[in-house]
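seq as requested:
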Amino acid sequence: MKKMKKAALIFGTGLCLAVGTGGTLAYLGDTGQVANRLTFAGEKGLDAVLTEPSWNPQKGLLTVPGSSVAKDPQITNTSELNMNELAALKCEFVYSQNCPDKSKRGKVLSAQDMEKVVQVYTIDYNSDDAAKGEWVRFAEQKKTDPVQYFYYSKVLKRNLNGTGETTVPLFTKVWVDKKVNNRRQTWIQKMGGVEIKISGQILQQMTGEEYFGLNNPKSAYEAGLFHF
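struct tokens:
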């Protein structure tokens, strides 16, 4: 049997839930966007970009109770070939570089600290809305997990006469409920801030290729092809 050749594209972006002084939560800062590309079949093949149209890193926003920040990570198929794509994202919550415990900086939050984070920050994940659900959180995962994986339930098509299809955002905003008190804010301060890192994977979709799991997003997920 001829071995199937597969190609994957990895890319990422991030934001930081930092803390300030005087018991207030500071602004969210973007760490930048990176799109990595690779060559497929001797030409420019798999290509995608992760963007956040509503996010304004220059503006910033004080995340005090009752405030919100627009944040809308989404993927666009930018392949120059007639190549449809399957997409998945990983969302990681990690300790910032301001964490008092230097050994934790850049590492994934503990389950206990993640529980505290979700009591301060709320994220409107598309996967959690029964009326939407274009993004599907991997089985047995929940929003309180410090690392979460999602796959896009639709195939991203490529329009050779223009820009390819774009996913709906994984989420659209991050906010702090008005009921969040100083005690909960202190939890985040003691951590030194929390960073959200998002990375993605793109696979070439092959119509009718059910054996290798590349026919559709669900098959690719069930075949374990989305891994980071």
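The CA atoms of residues 114 and 146 lie 6 Å apart.
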